[in-house]
Description:
By secondary structure, the chain is α+β, with helices and mostly antiparallel strands. It has helices at about 1-15, 65-75, 95-105, 115, 180-185, and strands at about 30-35, 45-55, 55-65, 90, 90-95, 120-125, 135, 150-155, 160-165, 170-175, 185-190. Helix 2 crosses helix 3 (about 95-105). The radius of gyration is 16 Å and the shape is globular.
Amino acid sequence: xxxxxxxxxxSSVLSCGSSKSKRVVTTKSESQTxxxxxxxxxxxxxxxxxxxxxxxxxxxxxxxxxxxxxxxSKAESFEGVKYKYGGTTKKGMDCSGLLYTSFGSENIAxxxxxxxxxxxxxxxxVKQVQEGDLLFFATRRNSRTINHVGMVTSSRxxxxxxxxxxxxxxxxxxxxxxxxxxxxxxxxxRIL
Length: 192
């Protein structure tokens, strides 16, 4: 009985659709400050990102167009991989596992669950999203609790593409303008 309870607890923590997901937070957490000045093709300068938590430095990450491209490329290398709850390999992948693995390939540590990611970094208006930004969704009926996450792979006026691990089709690229995703969208966040 204890083993079953422990397995249920672990599985709820790792879930993209955890029933204990936090409500949407659209402001930056007081315990986490991120300074940014990134280099991007259109309007970003070269930068170093320093993340601090509780007034102690966690890490300094040099971020460039190349880093973002490498993260996106790593995520795209999993395209077609089947969905697996808690998965982080080519044998199976869940939505937050895809991002965790992709950012990890560039030695960037991010939270493992979609609910934890939904409070990480800075809120971004959906009209201002850029490659590498995260999109959060509430896919349960009559709920605005975040249980799914994807990463922007392409952003042009009126057309945002993102990669994610769908429970029905595995790792795939979708358009934010698709009816299902448009109505499930909750927020966008920038962590790089």
